[in-house]
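Weekly structure sync, notes
Attendees: PL (lead), two postdocs, one rotation student
Agenda item 3: pending single-chain targets
PL asked that the sequence for the first pending target be pasted directly into the notes so everyone works from the same version. It is reproduced below exactly as submitted, 1077 residues in total.
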Amino acid sequence: MEPVGLAFGVIGLAGVFKSCVELFGYFSTYRSYGHDYNLLDAKLHVEKAVLLQWADRVRLLHEDYDRRLDNPTIREAISHILSSITHLLSETSSLQQRYGVEQRDEPPSQLLVSQSPAIGASLMEKFRDDYYAMQLRIHHRKATTSTSGKLRWMIVDKDKFSTLIAELSHFTSKLDALLPGDSSERTVSSLASLVRNEMASIYKENAKLLLQQATDDRLSGNDILQEARDQDRALKSLWFRCMDDRKDSISPAHVKTLQWALKPACEREGSEAEWDDLSEWLRSGTGVYWIYGKAGSGKSTLMKYLHDNPDTRAPLNAWAGDLPLTVGSFFFWGLGTQEQKSLEGLSRAILYQLLEAESSYLPSALPRLWQEVRTNVFKEPKPPSIGELRAASEFLTKNFQPKRRFCLFIDGLDEFQGSFHDAIKLIKGLCSNPAIKVIVSSRPIAICYDAFSRVPQLHMESLTRNDIKEYIHDVVGSHDYMQVLAASGEQSPNIITDKLIKKASGVFLWVILACRSILDGFAAYDTVAELCRRVDDLPPELEDLFVHMLNSVDRRYHEQMAKTLKILYTQVASKSSKGLTTIELAFFDRNGMDCASNNPLESFPVHEARKICSAMVVRLRSRCGGLLQAEPRFSWAKPSRSAKPDLGVCWCPSRETCPWVRGVGRNSSSHTHKSGGFPEHSTIEFIHRTVFEFLDNPKVWDLAPLRISDPTFNVACAIVGMDLQLSYLYSQNNARSWGSAEGLLVIDREPVKCVLPVLAELADYLSLRIARKYYAIEEVRQSCFSPFLDPAYNRSSLQLSFLMAVELGLVNTVVSLLPTVPRPRPPSAPPFSPFPLLYHSLNSPILCSLHAARRGIIRPCHELLGYLLSQGFSPNEVFVNERGLSTTPWRELLLRGQRLFESGDRPNVRCSTIHGILKAMEPFIEHGADLDNILPGIPTMEKFLDDVFAPAPPGGQENELQEVKDSLIAAVAERRRAMAAETLASSTASEQNKETVTQLDNSLDSKADKKVDSNSNKADNGSSPMLDIGGKVYLKALQEPLSWILLFAILALSIYMKSGLLSQAGSRDRPGWDGRG
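Predicted structure, written out during the meeting:
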């Protein structure tokens, strides 16, 4: 049975490949033109041989094809490359004008045509046989035609045709970079041998020279493939995932708008405004063209329209002339990631697009990056530093001489965060190169106006009046309800559209929101008078309009609206890259947006996702005043350098119906969320950046519609709870698991009463995941966590929540809970955890039983470890770990550090990881960790430090790790001094005690002797009776307190001993005593 990938995906790729490679057979040259033309012809067909060899290497036409071809991203990228080659070899006008070839029906009989097509003939023959066999396997035999007898392209301009060869070489190298082989050197060597033999049979006496010249640059060992891979790795360090996100998220222009933008000045009849002719500037202008307008006027929509419109290419191609054209873009996004609004992001995006097209300039533009790429073959390079980016931008300004032309679209410059002078300098520097020109858009802020007021420009508000009129007539004027109103006999309903047009002031966003209000009136069957009052009530300024929209929401929905807006505002303000998905908000909404209750995690069948999310999108319209919208989650643009699409978020019933897998274009209106297509693949977003700016004012949250009356609502805990619910849905549907606890750290700043329900939900999530994947394993059922797996176990218990807080590193939560829970030390620990708290903090045994669920948290948490140690938890507490070995928290930390340093992957270990482990040792040492006999074969802590630091640290980490080592050595030395001082003090105290007792005994003896003498004299007079006990005579008149204590002790001992002797004597006198005890 044919594999699914071949039947549905690879077969299509094979067809594209066949069409592409057969085009090479249409090219040749007249042998009489001489050596140079034969050389070009040979180079062309060497590229064909490279293509054929690639298809054979990846087994494109066979059942055992390279399974990397099943990846839709890779497959689409390959298809894109092959389509580009096909376009190069089949575009008639380009071939004639740019690449120096002429079309002939048949070569003249009197001239011989070179036989270069025979290069790679054996490979081509094998390909045709394999293709035929594949068609038979899948019963898909089609009639094919031969290239013989077709029109033939003859090379007539060697300089122009060399450009075509260079571009073909670029594309064929990209194929190898996409699917690198395990033995590329052997592959290239075998291909070179094949080409050498075939050229020898074709060119005879000139074969050696042609072979050397045609293959030196292409097939000399592995160099060309390695350089292509190095270029690709260097470009990857410039590329970032969200580079095109803002452009892709902008809705396409309304079908009847913006058509004026590309009209030449001579076709502007009836236009009231004047602007610098954009069409003419695209055709012949240089430098910068500035599009400006206030917020919501449609600047970004126009920029996307111009960038994507095929009509833009015609004047730009005229400007480029015979040179290839590259159109690039960067759309700033003030609510996005740091790269989307910074000079670094702008520089990387521009450099990526320019150097991808002109990759030969990579070593010159970014020399340090290129050196790192060439010297560290197995390590991905880091992104260039700010200094490198500045130097590269300077290089593009002065030394960049590309063999093509570039037009760049830079949108939203006013959303840039940083020094505007730097961004404007970069833009103007690029435009100083005659091969580059830029269209930039922004609000008319002072610094942009000062920089661009003297360049060709276009003012949005003065040009969009007709567009606004078209939009209003299309959305409102053509609505069926307008006919109902006209037939009602009231005043003409056209007054409604006239009022809207007059009040719009050129701000498209205002028009969109106003039209939605009118449509709501249509749904409520308002009269013309009532609809006119709706228009009159709409404030002309956006912020006032937002307040009006909030107040227009039914009071019963105010709480839901306030919570939803607060959640999205908080996520955007925190720069969360995940966004708020429609499906997680839907589940939070189903639970009443309640943060206090321990709501159980829910699951659902995959086929219900669309229904659940569709309902949520409809509810948003009635509960959020039109300020939020659902936007597609996927980027439908052509795949970039991301490893693979994130299919972990697919809720489609099957992969065959998934729009991402099927490659449905994002511009296809029949497959967007706006027509009800795929709401389950959407996120909730503000309709415009101005809504966020409006909510960013703290006073706005005091408005009545935005006041949250629920005292238990906590936005941070709500976000984490939704993330846990979403993660559970992913794991239940075999998508992806919860891979990061980073978001949980945020809740540590919240009140404990809000944190506890989230920790209970986390415990619920973890137990459900364990039960799903591991409970069938005998070792798990018998482990110390087995009671935790029991569905009857109370996972909202305070003690379990406390352990979760310890493992997650929630310091404030642990500090608050520690006095309220029993200290879980063995054997008083919970039944499912016999480990000390320090071990929970270090190794997170509960979370890590789920395959590193803690990923994303910086471990260990030094602050929490320090707190636990200060509370008396011993680093030397002996316990039995998961492996059944007797150990201590201190020894576990040392073993972890030792393994980290001894692992073979140490060069790839992040410095922060090494730094964190070593830094955690310092508080342990300060709080009494054993410094001797710490590990087998390591007698002292000093020896441990010498051993782990003996290998050379990873590149660039020497200084940081040396500081940590010095700090640890100092801590150990200080501890050694403290231990020595304690020992000395103890020894000194012991000697002093002995000396004190001796002195006291001597003093008592001396005093007693004096008293005895004195008492002897008094005894003669019959006063002060003496007491003779045990050979010592003591007087009752002693005054010193210590003397009294000793006296009474001796008396008591003497009495006890005498009474014992007397009793023993009496016993001996009794009959029957035999002397045995």
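Discussion points:
- The radius of gyration is 41 Å.
- The chain has a mean pLDDT of 75.
Action: rotation student to compare against the earlier draft before next sync.
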